[in-house]
Amino acid sequence: MSSVDPAIEKLNEATSLVVLILSTISIITGGIGLVFNILVFTRAPMRREPCAVYFLWSTLFSLIYILILQPVRLLAVSFAIDQANYNLAICKIEFYIFYISRSSSSWLIILACIDRYLHSSTNVHRRRLSSIKVTKLSISVTIIIMFLVHVHMLVYYEISFSSDQYGNITPACFGRKGTYRTFIGFWNLIFYSFCPSILMLFFGLLTLHNLRQHRLIIPNRNEPAVRMRRTDQQLLRMLIAQVLIIFIFTLPISILQLYQSLTSSTVKSTYRIAQENLAGRLTSVLTYYAHSSTFYLYTLAGRNFRREFFKITRILHINRITTAATRGRTTQ
C-alpha cells in the first residue's frame, strides 16, 4: 500500500461525512421552510401580487429539488445507492429532472425581478404588463422552455466508466466524453449560475432606478403611494437576498464542472481524483442551499412575508387548541 493511501482514505471519509451532514441539514430545514413558503404565498394577499406568484412557482420547483432529488443524490454519495449508474433510462431522466427543477427555480426568480421592474416603471404601458394574467403566461412559457432546452441531456447523458475517489474504475452517469462534456460545463456556468445572476442584478438595478424616480414624482404625503412603495421595497429586498444567495452558492459548482471538463483528458493521480471528488461533492451540496434557504431569507427581508407567516402560525395554533378541546369533549 502506498504512502498516499491513508490520506486518500481520510479524504474520502471526510467527503462522505460532510456531505451527509450538510445534506441532512438542507433537507430538514429546507423542506420545512419551503412548505411554509407555499403556505404564505398561497394566502389571498400574496396571490394578488404577480411577484409573489413567481416566488410560489419557484418554491415548488425548489421543493422537488430539495425533497426528492437531493435525497436521491445523498443516497448515491454517502451510501453508494445509485441506480442511475446502472440503468440508462434512470440516468437520463434523473439528471434531466435534476437540472430542469433547479434551473426553473432560478429563472422564475428572474421573471420576478422583471416583474418588479415593470411594476415600478413610470411608463403606464409597462406597468400593465405586471399582472396576474401575464404572470401565468410567463410561467407557463418558461416551464415549457426549460423542458425543451434541456432535451440534449436525454440524448447525451450516458453511463461511462471512470476512476472513482479510490482509483477504481466504476460506472457513472455523466455527459458524453469530449465536446459535450465541455459544453455542459459552459452550459451550467452560463445558464444556471452566471446568466441568471447577471439578469437578476440588471433588472434589480433598473427597479432601484424606477423607485428613485417615484420618490421625485410622488410626494411622501401620498399615503397609498407610500404603502405601495414600501411593498415594492420589501419584495425588492427579498429578490436581492435571493440573487446574492443564488450567485454565491451556484458559481463554485459551475466553475468546478468547467474545470473538470477541460481537464477530462488529463491523467490524474488517485489523490488528485479524491481531492476533486471532495470539491465536487461540497460545491454540489452548496447549490442545494441556494434553494433551501429561501424561507429564512424572505422572513428576514420581507415584513409583509413575516406578517403572513405569523398569521399562519396563529391559525395553526388556534386549530391545534380547537382540535385538542374537541377531543377532550369526545372522551368525556
UniProtKB/TrEMBL annotation:
Keywords, A to Z? G-protein coupled receptor, Membrane, Receptor, Transducer, Transmembrane, Transmembrane helix
Q: Where are the transmembrane segments?
A: 20-41, 53-76, 96-118, 139-157, 189-208, 235-259, 279-301
- G-protein coupled receptors family 1 profile domain location: 33-298
Q: Where does this polypeptide localize?
A: Membrane
Cellular component terms per the entry's GO annotation: plasma membrane
Q: Which InterPro entries match?
A: GPCR_Rhodpsn, GPCR_Rhodpsn_7TM
Q: A Pfam family in this protein?
A: 7tm_1
A molecular function GO annotation: G protein-coupled receptor activity
Give membrane topology per the record: Multi-pass membrane protein
**Stated name of the protein:** G-protein coupled receptors family 1 profile domain-containing protein
Organism in which the protein naturally occurs: Adineta ricciae
Organism lineage reads as:
Eukaryota, Metazoa, Spiralia, Gnathifera, Rotifera
